[in-house]
Amino acid sequence: MKLSTHKAALLSATMATAVLAPHAFAKPISEADKAQILKTVDANAVNIQDAALKIWSFAEVGYQETKSTALLQDQLKAAGFTVKAGVAGEPTAFIASYKNGDGPVIAILAEFDALPGLAQTADPVKTGIPGQIAGHGCGHNLFGAASVGAAVSLKAWMVKNNVKGELRVYGTPAEEGGSGKVYFVRDGLFNDVDATLHWHPANSNSAVQGVSMANISGKFRFHGVSAHAAAAPEKGRSALDGVEVMDVATNFLREHTPDKTRIHYVITAGGTAPNVVPNFAEVYYYVRHPDPAVVKDVWSRVEKAADGAALATGTTVEKEITGGVYALLPNDTLGRVMDANLRKVGGITWTPEEIAFAKKIQTSLVNPPSIDSVKTVEPYKIELEGGGGSTDVSDISWVTPTVGLGTATFVPGSAGHSWQNVAAAGSSIGVKGAVNAAKTLALTGADLFANPDIVKKAKAELAERRGPNFTYKAMLGDRPPALDYRKAASSARE
């Protein structure tokens, strides 16, 4: 889909929904039902906290989340869900299901991977953890715990009221660069899902529906010839030279790419000793843009830069795409339902101790906003511009109506993927936001089970947004999951 076509589809669908009164399609469940669901989530809060803090301490990176996924699966099994593990070719992935006859199929997403390089204690000052390499700087420990808590509470309501339909929890690993959800979509595991719910830890409470950036990520491995760098440099061919020439060529490429293109890289292997010409080096790249077609085009140009670098340095290069995601398609129909339920739940109140914790963290930030913002819910809107990050939730949003929210689990003003976020995600501040998210997800799921007209309208909106004749094709092709993408590059390769 070309960028202009993509934007036109978004705008057309927005015009079709924006004139509707808020929540025009909802026939809300009774106040008694809502009270029951909220009470159940509160009762499950201790399990949400237990899972969130244990997963925070595990701090397992993508496709290595063995303890984290086992904990969540155990909670779901204990609540009466049927769990199928190792789906989509991913050992730490799972689908948990509770089904009561025919009816809507509603999915809730659960993430649980940590980020490398962000080990941090749950203290409001920068304090690393010796021997630990990763931390939950994106709050996925809270994400997975709250989603499971929401599902357990929603199932209890379904059982008590004999609600028909199927509730699923999709345990999706490796969101951070591993594109875990893409393999679920590619394998057809969302084909029969009527609507998908998710959330994400944030600095504020909001059900604003927006877009994200499409992304392709991958590794370029250069192979050369080792030699003594002083005694016989002419006999060597430096793989590190190949990486560095590629990086220079790609940096010059930046000026000649479409606006909003983002290119990032990090050298993950570059040799071990200055006096040995490196025979192996590796560089890890991301390319982003709102339009998937632009991402594919720019990525092909980065690959050509790698080929040219190998030619120039007398080395060879091996390329591997390790991840690739679409841009997120917002759904205004579901967004309005989600917003109504978030407002029902309300903002977050911190204790004096939590306020002191937050203020201490804010001393490390530049011009942070007031911490009182966590008490409120931001105005609802649908945003079709911006979206600096990428997410594998995006691929799901092209095959089933998808809606998300954010709750205040971090201190206002904190940057994503920061030590400040790791500290908050391991504290009661993070847990409180997670419980609010669980309540909102559970209420929204109940609305969708009770009101098939909402789902029908959401599906019509999805069809309009993605345009006619759409066929899903994964950005990362037909490769199997890159289960070792977080493992260190081997410098011993020839």
Overall description:
By secondary structure, the protein is α/β, with parallel strands linked by helices. It folds into two domains: 31-210 and 327-466, Aminopeptidase; 214-323, Alpha-Beta Plaits (2-Layer Sandwich). The chain contains 13 helices and twelve strands. It has helices at residues 3-18, 31-58, 66-78, 140-161, 180-186, 239-253, 292-313, 332-345, 352-362, 393-397, 419-425, 428-450, 452-466; strands at 82-85, 94-100, 105-110, 115-116, 134-135, 165-171, 195-202, 214-223, 262-269, 280-289, 316-325, 402-408. The strands form three sheets. It has a six-stranded mixed beta sheet. It has a four-stranded antiparallel beta sheet with strand order 9-10-8-11. The protein has a two-stranded antiparallel ribbon with strand order 4-5. Helix 2 (31-58) runs antiparallel to helix 3, helix 3 runs parallel beside helix 4 and helix 12 crosses helix 13 (452-466). One of its GO terms (biological process) is folic acid catabolic process. Keywords: Hydrolase, Signal.
